[in-house]
Design goal:
- The chain has 476 residues and is α+β, with helices and mostly antiparallel strands.
- It has helices at 2-11, 35-45, 66-76, 85-94, 132-240, 244-262, 277-281, 284-293, and strands at 24-26, 32-34, 106-108, 113-115, 129-131, 312-314, 320-323, 342-344, 353-359, 366-372, 389-396, 399-402, 407-408, 416-422, 427-432, 437-443, 450-456, 467-470.
- It is built from eight helices and 18 strands.
- The longest helix has 109 residues, at 132-240.
- It is elongated and about 175 Å long.
- Residues 14-54 form the RING-type domain.
- Pfam families: PRY, SPRY, zf-B_box, zf-RING_UBOX.
- Keywords: Metal-binding, Zinc, Zinc-finger.
C-alpha cells in the first residue's frame, strides 16, 4: 500500500517545485506542472520550452488540466468539507459541466483536460478530442507502462544492491585471506633474515674465537720466552756479583747461554689478528639480498582473482589455476567472467615486448593466449580475434587450433607453452620453450590493452594438475 501511495504521489508531483500540483497545466509533450511554477520557469529561462524534455510549447498560456487538478487536490486534502474524498473525485470527474451534466464528457488530448461537448466543443475543433472513457483507458495504459518501468527499475536497483552486499561480504573475506597470506610471506622472509642474521653472527663469533685462540698461543709462547730471558738475566746478574776467581771458573757457561738467547730472532706480531670487520659488514644488505633471491620467485604474469569464473580456483600466489568440482559463491562484479571458465592476468600490455610460459600439463581442454580488455565477460562469445582473443587452443586431446578455426600442427604434445607478445608489431606467437620451436604466430593490429588469458575446460579428472604460469628463461 505504501508503494502505491508513493507512486501516486510521484505521479501527482510538479517537477519544478516537487510539491503536489496546484492548478496543473499539461503541455503538448504530456509533461505537467503547476501553472505558476511553469510561468516562473519560463520567465527565468526566457523561452517557452518544457522544463523536462526542452520541447517548445505550442501554447503560450496552457489551460488548466482539471482532471489532474481534481486528483491533486483530492490527494493533498484540499477539497471542501462534505462527502468522502472518493465521492468528491468521482463527482468532479463525472460532472464536467453543471449546465449539461447529462451529456457525456469528452477529453481534449492537446490540453489534457475534460470538456463539455455542448459548451466547449467549438473551441477545440483543431484539437484531438476523444471520448472520456477512451482517454481514461489510454491514460491508464500509459500509467501502467510507467508503473512497469518503475518496477523494472526497482528490480534492477535491488539486483545491484544485492551485488553490492555480496561485494561487501566478499571484500571482508578477501581482507582476511590476503592479510593472512601477506603475514605468511613476511614470516618466511623474517625467518630467512633471522636465520641469516644468526648465521652471520655465528661466523663473527667463530672468527673471534679462532683468532683469540691464536693470539693466546702466541702470548703463551712469548710469556715462556720472557720467563726464559728473565732467568738468563738473573743468572748473568748473579755471575757479575761473584769474586774474580769464582767468576773466571763459571762465567763461560753463563755467557754461552746468554749469547744463545740473544741470538734468537725478535718476536713479531701476527698480521690478521683483528676481526675482519669489512668481510662481515661490507655490502651486507646486498649479499643478503642476493642470497634471498634464491628463496623468492618472480612471475611475469599474476592472475586476477576478481576476473576468475566461479568454477576456477587460484593458488595463494595467484600463479596457477585449476577447475573445481563446486561453484564458488563470488560476487558478480563487472570484471568477473561469468559465462566460461576463464581468468585474465592482473596487468595488461599496451606496448613493448612481453613473454611468459604456461604449463598446461595433461589438461585435455584449454585456451592460452591474450584477450583485449573490452571482451564480453557476461555473454556468449567465441575465443577468436573477431571477439578479441588471440590464443592457442586444445579442445580435444593432442588436437590444437587457433582462434580462426585453423588446425595447428605440432611435432609433440604440448605440456608447456611459451607465449610471446610484440605489441608494437602486432604479433602473438607461441613456441615450445625447450628448444624455441615455433608453433604459431597471429598478426593483427592492436588498438587497446591486452591481458594474459587462460581457459580451462572441465576435465572431470581429479588427478589433473593445475595450469601454472612460469617465468620465461629467455629474455626478449
Amino acid at each position: 500500500m505504501a508503494e502505491k501511495i508513493a507512486l501516486l504521489e510521484s505521479f501527482l508531483s510538479c517537477h519544478v517545485c516537487s510539491e503536489t500540483f496546484r492548478d496543473p497545466v499539461s503541455l503538448s509533450c504530456s509533461h505537467s506542472f503547476c501553472s505558476s511554477c511553469l510561468q516562473k520557469f519560463w520567465e527565468q529561462a526566457k523561452n517557452k520550452n518544457c522544463p523536462i524534455c526542452k520541447r517548445k510549447s505550442s501554447k503560450e498560456f496552457p489551460g488548466i488540466n482539471f482532471t489532474l487538478k481534481e486528483l491533486s487536490d483530492s490527494f493533498a486534502g484540499r477539497q471542501k468539507p462534505g462527502s468522502s474524498e472518493t465521492e468528491k473525485v468521482e463527482k468532479k470527474v463525472e460532472v464536467v459541466c453543471s449546465k449539461h451534466p447529462e451529456v457525456p464528457s469528452w477529453f481534449c488530448e492537446d490540453e489534457q483536460r475534460s470538456l463539455c461537448p455542448v459548451c466547449e466543443f467549438s473551441l477545440h475543433q483543431n484539437h484531438k478530442v476523444v471520448p472520456i472513457e477512451q482517454a481514461v483507458s489510454d491514460l491508464k495504459d500509459q500509467l501502467k507502462c510507467d508503473l512497469k518501468s518503475l518496477q523494472d527499475k526497482r528490480d534492477k536497483c535491488k539486483q545491484v544492491e544485492k551485488t553490492y552486499k555480496d561485494v561487501i561480504q566478499h571484500t571482508k573475506k578477501q581482507l582476511l585471506s590476503t592479510e593472512r597470506q601477506i603475514r605468511a610471506e613476511f614470516y618466511k622472509l623474517q625467518q630467512f633474515l633471522k636465520e641469516e642474521e644468526e648465521s652471520r653472527l655465528a661466523a663473527l663469533r667463530e672468527e673471534e674465537e679462532h683468532k683469540g685462540k691464536t693470539i693466546s698461543r702466541e702470548m703463551k709462547r712469548i710469556q715462556e720466552q720472557i720467563s726464559s730471558l728473565s732467568d738468563s738475566i738473573c743468572a748473568v746478574e748473579e755471575e757479575l756479583q761473584k769474586h774474580k776467581v769464582a767468576f773466571l771458573s763459571t762465567y763461560k757457561d753463563t755467557q754461552t747461554r746468554a749469547r744463545a738467547q740473544s741470538s734468537l730472532s725478535d718476536p713479531q706480531l701476527l698480521s690478521g689478528a683483528l676481526i675482519d670487520v669489512a668481510k662481515h659488514l661490507g655490502n651486507l644488505s646486498f649479499r643478503v639480498w642476493e642470497k634471498m633471491k634464491e628463496k623468492v620467485h618472480f612471475s611475469p604474469v599474476i592472475l586476477d582473482p576478481n576476473t576468475a569464473n566461479y568454477w576456477l580456483y587460484l593458488s595463494d600466489d595467484l600463479t596457477s589455476v585449476r577447475d573445481g568440482d563446486t561453484e564458488q559463491q563470488l560476487p558478480d562484479n563487472p570484471e568477473r567472467i561469468t559465462k566460461y571458465p576463464e581468468v585474465l592476468g592482473s596487468e595488461g600490455f599496451s606496448s613493448g615486448k612481453h613473454s611468459w610460459e604456461v604449463e598446461v600439463g595433461d589438461h585435455p581442454r584449454w585456451n592460452v593466449g591474450l584477450a583485449k580488455e573490452s571482451i564480453d565477460r557476461k555473454g556468449e562469445c567465441y575465443a577468436s580475434p573477431k571477439d578479441g582473443f588471440w590464443c592457442l587452443k586444445q579442445e580435444e586431446e593432442h588436437k590444437y587450433s587457433n582462434g580462426a578455426d585453423q588446425t595447428v600442427s605440432v611435432k609433440k604434445s604440448l605440456q608447456r607453452i611459451r607465449v610471446q607478445l610484440d605489441y608494437d608489431r602486432g604479433e602473438v606467437s607461441f613456441y615450445h620453450p625447450e628448444d624455441m620451436t615455433h608453433i604459431y604466430t597471429h598478426k593483427d593490429t592492436f588498438t587497446e590493452k591486452l591481458f594474459p588469458y587462460l581457459l580451462i575446460g572441465q576435465s572431470g579428472d581429479a588427478k589433473t594438475t593445475d595450469i601454472k604460469i612460469c617465468p620465461s628463461e629467455i629474455c626478449l
